[in-house]
């Protein structure tokens, strides 16, 4: 199965042609050609410019920002948006060539005679009058890009016109180049606004990528581009071009993914070279060292070049100096430069850089993470650092989540006979790199460590990998049991028992997990690793057992404890947040669940930890499911599936695929949904059995989308499974789904019972909703709809409103029916979902003529005007209007506007259906 295709060949685009001879080229060419037209973000800046232009006391705005920040593009956008009726836009053309010609920048707007006269006060006045003369009474907007290149006469002209409020002067200048004094004076004297053009945020980088690449890019790629370019618009454009040109991108599940490393094309290299022109060889050397050294202490760097060189590159904005761990460290402001410099450095030069860095860092007092780098540089240079150093560096790299490096170092440590010491980085590292089979083979090879602690850790990493990596749960249990027989100490045994508790909970045995976890916690000290793992298992179990307060408390404590152990067990965070988000979801705290899942995703992306990213994609998808945001659900599932497939996480992949199927079913893509579900079913997933109810529910939604009468029964199976787990919240959610599929009577009794057990949150609300639906109680449904909206689920609220509309209509209350139907449609609009309740909504249907007339009435036309428009009698128009009001359940024209967009006209004019 080839699921990843190069983006460049993804599609063929039309670049030019007159219809008879179209020119088709790879899609990437079109994307590159369109890069310059894209405009993203900058709302804040645009608003401020707009406000300044309207402000009576202001006559200018100065944009300032780094080279390539996006100043020129922003100016172009202001010009594009300017209203020609109100403004005459005069665009100065400032460049090196005109910078010594008086009025050179405004030459095209000024009379030829003026260009020949000497520059004096008289000429200045004439020039201003000439511009005013062309304005035809409109306001003048002088737009000056690269203001530092403006000739003196033009500066004076702009300054004077701004001072006398004869024009609004909008300038752009590069920070560091200095803006002309008079323009700066305008700002300091309060006549002009000073507006900084900031680097793009990560979200904006994501938007740029999405619009240039023709669809969403995975979070990890967005993060890398954002980091590499420092959010610089120009560098981002060039990097995108390089990615498109080299075919470095692949398309998986409709998500654009990056390759192992960012591409360096000769064009990109040339551009970086150009940016570095004028630097002394010493400055360049400083940059090269940073390219290999990443973040280097300023003292070390100054020792290798000179302090003056470091100061120069910092002043030029190419290097950033930050205080980290109590000392100043330098790094490249745009890490993309580092990629270019490294790619271009000849081998021997690269080697010498690493050698010098390693020597200098070792000689100085190394800071945190420095020794790890030294080991990495030495390895890269083909040297053999000592076994102890490698083992220490491996653990360090591991705790920093540098997966590739820790993997490489762990391999060396094993060769040097230090395998036992690096068992965890080795095992987890391989597992998280999608190589669980290798991990098991290499761990099994390490033999039986002499020390109990080492034995416990080796056993636990192996068992974890067997269960969650290879989905071989029985083997994992066997290993843990024999491992326990081989241990006597309380703490080493507790480590394995805590892991057993975790396997219990993910196996769906929530009660057993709580019991075992509590035993472990009673046996070991408060801050031990075993206690932390046990606390996580307990917290997750409590979340599913619907004991939310205890769960939040347990997980909160686990969060605190995990700060200490996160470096050794990076999966702790994932399971903690999995529990937390479920505790929120199952008690109806949808908005909190959303915030938690999104924050976790951001952290995972910032750490470039694919395993965690895929997990957080699932959590975000589950939140989106609860809120009924189908597009978001699909997007998150696709990204997660692409990662999990690439990394071979079978259990997680199965849940993600099922969730994808659920989203596709709601989006009406039944075939694709069935395919995804079949694939999910093909992957065994005993290690994540706890999440199986989600898969069963997905199955029921796929069935419902295919109009299968079995859908409610399948959802009931999901509920039964959750009940088996003791997962009351999940059971209630599943039963609610059964009701949503049209079988409320079936589940009412059990939901009532569950609602009686649980005080607040979602369960009583689900029960009340189902109660009202079963009884056909319109007012009850209205109340449920309002509550569900408040909970943060527009889709569920829309469904209740749709049911309410049908109840009212059945009772003959057309006005109430119409209002509820309108509410249902409005709420469902953002969701994009098709569900049985929404399909069953009978909408008031206007005839085409009624709709046309109502539309004009909504725009404020009188009946007489409408009658003239359609050549009808006024009486006929009024009759049509009255019928429309009756169908929509409204009293007059004022309410028409909001409703009309929601109700499309019927196709058949003659047989107007009644409500
Ligand atoms: N808001 C934006 N959205 C998308 N692309 C942008 C935006 N601003 C700038 N760019 C891209 O970055 C490039 C450099 O921007 P530019 O405005 O020329 O920078 P500056 O004038 O600050 O040096 C532009 O050619 C454009 O492709
Ligand atoms: Mg520019």
From TrEMBL:
<protein>
    <submittedName>
        <fullName>LuxR C-terminal-related transcriptional regulator</fullName>
    </submittedName>
</protein>
<dbReference type="InterPro" id="IPR016032">
    <property type="entry name" value="Sig_transdc_resp-reg_C-effctor"/>
</dbReference>
<dbReference type="InterPro" id="IPR036388">
    <property type="entry name" value="WH-like_DNA-bd_sf"/>
</dbReference>
<dbReference type="InterPro" id="IPR000792">
    <property type="entry name" value="Tscrpt_reg_LuxR_C"/>
</dbReference>
<dbReference type="Pfam" id="PF13191">
    <property type="entry name" value="AAA_16"/>
</dbReference>
<dbReference type="InterPro" id="IPR027417">
    <property type="entry name" value="P-loop_NTPase"/>
</dbReference>
<keyword id="KW-0067">ATP-binding</keyword>
<feature type="domain" description="HTH luxR-type">
    <location>
        <begin position="839"/>
        <end position="904"/>
    </location>
</feature>
<keyword id="KW-0547">Nucleotide-binding</keyword>
<dbReference type="InterPro" id="IPR041664">
    <property type="entry name" value="AAA_16"/>
</dbReference>
<dbReference type="Pfam" id="PF00196">
    <property type="entry name" value="GerE"/>
</dbReference>
């Amino acid at each position: 199965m080839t699921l990843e295709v190069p983006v460049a060949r993804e599609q063929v685009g039309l670049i030019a042609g007159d219809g008879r001879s179209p020119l088709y080229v790879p899609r990437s060419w079109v994307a590159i050609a369109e890069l310059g037209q894209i405009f993203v973000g900058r709302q804040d800046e645009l608003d401020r410019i707009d406000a300044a232009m309207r402000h009576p006391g202001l006559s200018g705005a100065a944009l300032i920002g780094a080279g390539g920040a996006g100043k020129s593009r922003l100016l172009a956008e202001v010009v594009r948006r300017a209203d020609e009726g109100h403004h005459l836009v005069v665009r100065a053309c400032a460049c090196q060539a005109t910078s010594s010609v008086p009025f050179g920048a405004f030459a095209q707007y000024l009379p030829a005679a003026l260009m020949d006269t000497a520059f004096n006060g008289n000429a200045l006045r004439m020039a201003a009058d000439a511009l005013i003369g062309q304005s035809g009474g409109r306001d003048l907007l002088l737009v000056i890009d690269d203001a530092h290149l403006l000739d003196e006469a033009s500066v004076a002209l702009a300054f004077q016109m701004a001072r006398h409020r004869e024009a609004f002067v909008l300038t752009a200048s590069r920070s560091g180049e200095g803006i002309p004094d008079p323009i700066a004076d305008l700002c300091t004297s309060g006549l002009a606004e000073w507006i900084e053009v900031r680097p793009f945020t990560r979200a904006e980088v994501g938007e740029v990528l999405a619009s240039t690449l023709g669809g969403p890019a995975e979070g990890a790629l967005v993060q890398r581009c954002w980091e590499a370019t420092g959010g610089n618009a120009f560098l981002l454009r060039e990097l995108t071009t390089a990615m498109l040109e080299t075919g470095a991108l692949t398309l998986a599940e409709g998500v654009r993914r990056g390759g192992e490393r960012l591409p360096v094309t000769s064009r990109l290299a040339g551009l970086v070279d150009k940016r570095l022109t004028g630097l002394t060889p010493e400055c360049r050397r400083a940059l090269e060292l940073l390219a290999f050294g990443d973040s280097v202490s300023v003292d070390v760097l100054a020792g290798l070049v000179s302090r003056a060189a470091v100061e120069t590159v910092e002043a030029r904005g190419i290097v950033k100096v930050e205080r980290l761990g109590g000392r100043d460290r330098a790094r490249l402001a745009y890490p993309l430069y580092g990629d270019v410099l490294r790619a271009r450095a000849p081998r021997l030069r690269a080697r010498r850089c690493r050698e010098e860095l390693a020597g200098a860092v070792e000689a100085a007092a190394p800071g945190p993470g420095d020794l790890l780098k030294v080991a990495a540089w030495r390895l890269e240079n083909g040297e053999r650092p000592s076994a102890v150093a490698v083992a220490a560096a491996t653990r360090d790299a591991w705790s920093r989540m540098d997966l590739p490096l820790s993997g490489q170092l762990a391999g060396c440590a094993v060769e040097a006979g230090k395998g036992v010491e690096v068992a965890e980085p080795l095992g987890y590292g391989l597992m998280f790199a999608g190589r669980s089979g290798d991990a098991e083979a290499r761990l099994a090879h390490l033999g039986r460590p002499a020390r109990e602690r080492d034995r416990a850790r080796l056993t636990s990493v192996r068992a974890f990998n067997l269960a969650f990596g290879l989905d071989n749960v029985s083997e994992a249990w066997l290993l843990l049991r024999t491992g326990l027989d081989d241990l006597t100490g309380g703490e080493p045994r507790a480590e394995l028992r805590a892991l057993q508790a975790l396997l219990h909970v993910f196996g769906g045995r929530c009660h057993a997990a709580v019991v075992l976890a509590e035993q472990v916690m009673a046996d070991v000290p408060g801050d031990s690793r075993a206690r932390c793992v046990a606390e996580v298992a307990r917290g997750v179990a409590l979340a599913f057992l619907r004991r939310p307060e205890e769960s939040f408390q347990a997980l909160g404590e686990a969060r605190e404890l995990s700060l200490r152990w996160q470096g050794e067990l990076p999966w702790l965070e994932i399971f903690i947040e999995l529990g937390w988000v479920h505790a929120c979801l199952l008690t109806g705290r949808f908005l909190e669940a959303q915030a938690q899942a999104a924050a976790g995703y951001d952290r995972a992306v910032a750490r470039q930890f694919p395993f965690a990213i895929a997990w957080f994609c699932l959590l975000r998808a589950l939140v989106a499911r609860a809120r009924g945001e189908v597009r978001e659900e699909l997007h998150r599932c696709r990204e997660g599936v692409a990662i999990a497939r690439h990394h071979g996480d079978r259990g997680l992949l199965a849940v993600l695929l099922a969730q994808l199927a659920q989203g596709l079913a709601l989006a009406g893509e039944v075939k694709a949904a069935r395919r995804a579900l079949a694939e999910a079913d093909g992957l065994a997933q005993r290690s994540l059995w706890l999440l199986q109810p989600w898969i069963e529910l997905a199955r029921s939604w796929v069935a419902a989308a295919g109009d299968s009468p079995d859908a409610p029964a399948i959802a009931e199976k999901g509920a039964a499974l959750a009940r088996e787990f003791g997962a009351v919240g999940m059971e209630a959610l599943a039963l609610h789904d059964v009701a949503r599929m049209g079988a409320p009577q079936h589940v009412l009794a059990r939901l009532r019972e569950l609602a009686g057990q649980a005080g607040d949150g979602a369960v009583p609300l689900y029960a009340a909703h189902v109660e009202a639906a079963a009884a056909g109680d319109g007012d009850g449904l209205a109340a449920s709809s309002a509550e569900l909206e408040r909970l943060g689920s527009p889709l569920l609220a829309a469904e209740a409103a749709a049911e309410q509309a049908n109840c009212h209509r059945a009772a003959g209350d057309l006005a109430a029916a119409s209002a509820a139907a309108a509410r249902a449609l409005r709420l469902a609009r953002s969701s994009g979902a098709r569900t049985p309740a929404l399909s069953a909504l009978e909408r008031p249907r206007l005839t085409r003529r009624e709709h046309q007339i109502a539309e004009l009435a909504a725009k404020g036309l009188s009946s007489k005007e409408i009658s003239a428009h359609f050549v009808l009698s006024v009486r006929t128009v009024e009759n049509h209007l009255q019928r429309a009001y009756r169908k929509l359940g409204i009293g007059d024209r004022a309410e028409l506007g909001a409703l009309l967009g929601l109700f499309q006209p019927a196709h058949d004019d003659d047989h107007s259906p009644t409500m």
